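Long-time lurker, first post. I've been practising inverse folding by hand and with some scripts of my own, and I keep getting stuck on stretches where the structure tokens seem ambiguous. Below is the full token string for one chain I'm working on. Before anyone asks, I'm not after the true native sequence, just a reasonable design that respects the backbone. If someone could post their per-position residues I'd love to compare against what I wrote down in my notebook.
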């Protein structure tokens, strides 16, 4: 996973729980690097999963809740990083926005070679719009709910 995912998780923990807790999470996850994650560097997915697992144990918050909060923080991180203009052109309605996420990921793939982004499809149902989320990374669907 690209470092911007881990960096957003780092921002979430530091902002809500403090640097000392983030350092405890890194230690528990056996992440020995100094400093912040580099946003354009690819890190093994295991690092992200280990950080989430360590956060669950240390914060005593269920993984789903952490991932949803992470999704919210990640969206804010994307806005603060200058991607807000790109997000605005994805569509004026929730359906258009969600339908165009794959196109955004295709574009970002040119900036982040090797990026393995999830895929999204929308279908209409009797109760409204249904989002279909596809990812090769299991267990991260609550990030999408947070976003």
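-- Answer (accepted) --
I ran through it position by position. Result:
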């Amino acid at each position: 996973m690209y470092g911007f995912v881990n960096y957003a998780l780092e921002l979430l923990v530091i902002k809500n729980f403090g640097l000392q807790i983030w350092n405890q999470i890194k230690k528990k996850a056996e992440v020995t690097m100094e400093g912040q994650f580099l946003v354009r560097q690819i890190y093994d997915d295991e690092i992200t999963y280990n950080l989430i697992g360590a956060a669950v144990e240390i914060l005593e918050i269920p993984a789903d809740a952490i991932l949803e909060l992470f999704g919210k923080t990640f969206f804010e991180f994307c806005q603060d990083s200058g991607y807000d203009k790109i997000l605005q052109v994805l569509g004026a309605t929730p359906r258009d926005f969600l339908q165009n996420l794959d196109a955004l990921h295709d574009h970002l793939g040119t900036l982040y070679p090797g990026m393995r982004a999830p895929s999204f499809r929308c279908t209409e149902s009797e109760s409204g719009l249904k989002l279909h989320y596809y990812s090769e990374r299991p267990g991260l669907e609550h990030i999408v709910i947070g976003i």
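A couple of notes from the structure itself: The longest strand covers residues 119-125. The chain has a mean pLDDT of 89. Happy to go over any region you disagree with.
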